[in-house]
Protein 1
Amino acid sequence: MATAEQTHCNRCGAPLVRDAAYCDRCGERTNRARRLVRLTARVEILFVLLILALVLGFAYVYAIQKP
Ligand SMILES: [Zn+2]
């Protein structure tokens, strides 16, 4: 992911501090923050699916082991 670093706010055009997640002037989220939020959401979904698979797997094993 080689995206050019965002240097100005999308909403108000104020210059952004390097690696800033939010605009100092208007509080708008930067592209970097948006990307991080998307990534976090994806990881959370994967995590939930993993737990679900584990629970279902154990339930299945438990069910077929019953006499
Ligand atoms: Zn701004």
Protein 2
Amino acid sequence: MTTHRPTGSEPPASPIPAETTVLNLPDEATINRLAGAFFAALPSGMPGVAALGVAAPSSPAGLPDTFPSALGSVPTGSVPVGSVPTSSVPTSSVPTRSVPTSSVPTRSVPTSSVPTGSAPQSSSAPGAVSAPRSSAPQGAVPPGGPTPDVTVPAWGADVPMSTPSGPPPTSTVRNADIHTDPFLVGLPSLEQVLSPPRDAGPPAVGAPEFYFLERPQAPAAPVNSQFYFLDAVRHRAPDRHPPFDVHAVRNDFPILSERVNGHPLVWFDNAATTQKPRSVIERIAYFYEHENSNIHRAAHELAARSTDAYERARDAVTRFIGASSAQEIVFVRGATEGINLIAQTWGRKHIREGDEILISHLEHHANIVPWQMLCAETGALLKVIPVDDRGQLLMDEYTRLLSDRTKLVSVTQVSNALGTITPVHEIVAQAHRAGAIALIDGAQSVPHTAVDVRSIGADFFVFSGHKLFGPTGIGVVYGNAEVLRDMPPWQGGGNMISDVTLERSLFQPPPGRFEAGTGNIADAVGLGAAIDYVERLGMDNISRYEHGLLEYATPRLAAIPGVRLVGTAADKASVLSFVMDGYEPLEVGKALNEKGIAVRAGHHCAQPILRRLGLEATVRPSFAFYNTCEEIDRMISELERLARAVR
Ligand SMILES: Cc1ncc(COP(=O)(O)O)c(C=O)c1O
């Protein structure tokens, strides 16, 4: 990462500790160096050091010999910043889920102004849509049936964009077809789902145990809120599955202690937005207390701090999604703005009359409307990959739709309305074979699963910070370097230029070219902290735990008389959509709210897919890693009460 600090102004080492959890170090020498630095920094008397047979070298030059007394003892498994020469760990060798210091404020901070425990952690137009009528009942478009071609009228034509013809169908649905798919039976117990595999056994001889992150035999470290993540996930070896302590994780989220209508809050509206861990909240506060400045401009200390913090956040995103370089990461307001940016820059440059853009029937409005607008402007055609009745993409239809006219395929990785996971690797590979560019909407995938844009092969990937436990108003466009370089700017102004005369302007290379004006600096930094947080938990741990929640909730929900699950794909993430006999979705949402349970009830900004399934709205509980089976039980018992009231 580029450091933007003016030379000769290196601040003293920060007294604020942050955590560096290295799960997969590159080689033994580096491990030894890190471990040595760690032990050198341990307060004397820390158990276990001698037993490990690692000589504790003296502190590296320039590093503090002792910790500030306010911090007390350093819990097992924490590595204070300043005690590990992070510069000696090449960025390229830091594994994807290693814990970064990228958004850790490493600047000097007056101790007095940072109270102990509050230091930031580590840091259709209907007339235009010729296929499935938006209000068509379920089955109106049979699987494998006519492919919905979407043509868009000239922009500005007097056609309403998405009003369904006729009265909306009722969302009160009979119980005739309660879901009976085989995947609901033979459910393993949650313990089976969540516990480490039996054959994990002791670590293989010679396998790195990373003892400095945890000593299994050592007494539990004192609980210290500054190191809460270590309490949540006990790292052992990178190939093991650490148990996931959801109760420790919940302590990181202050809002989860709220009471709503006299009940403890149950937040099941994670697909709309997620709650924020304390580390994110404090990181943003820290930014405004110690770093706030505009970036890239002034040669003063705070400009250097804010620029460093902002660029570290970009580095965190780069690492998190497996991009090749930070130059491929553009900060935007969110997934919606990201898709609009792509449509307005790449799209306007490359899309011509007669070209085809391919989306899927699962898309959020954010991945429909910008393409309708572009098609209206250019005379291109929007085509739609159909789904089956379970909400799964019909891949044969996709293959059939691709042609040399296809210029762009833009598909979500996880449906926000149904939870369907789409086969993005295959989608991108086929798009490329057809000569098209591929955009993946990752708004609903990044919170739940590890993403590697290079492995997916996507040319573009977008997501929103607020769905990833970060702040609102910040999001990301990943663009393959080659594709980005070829794109014109979409907004002009400060920051994005390299030189301006009254006659012409020269633009920055990406990503600056696409970040005109003053960006959302503080929230970008907050997003970096959110990424640090989920990486510390481990995306694989998160996926595994959430899968357990989904497996726990699905059969219990399906068994409630009158409930019909909507979206029953074999491969799903964290979303359960349903309707219930005798109730409008909104009524169910309100009844749950009375018990402090927040779910979304409505069309979820994905009207085409709900209408494809014969509905205008559903109730949508969506889970995150801080939810529990007890919370699911609370929802189920309230729904059972509603079901009994109908009979
Ligand atoms: C799949 C998907 N794409 C895009 C978006 C738009 O995200 P934002 O409103 O944060 O821009 C959402 C939001 O729910 C979504 O679920």
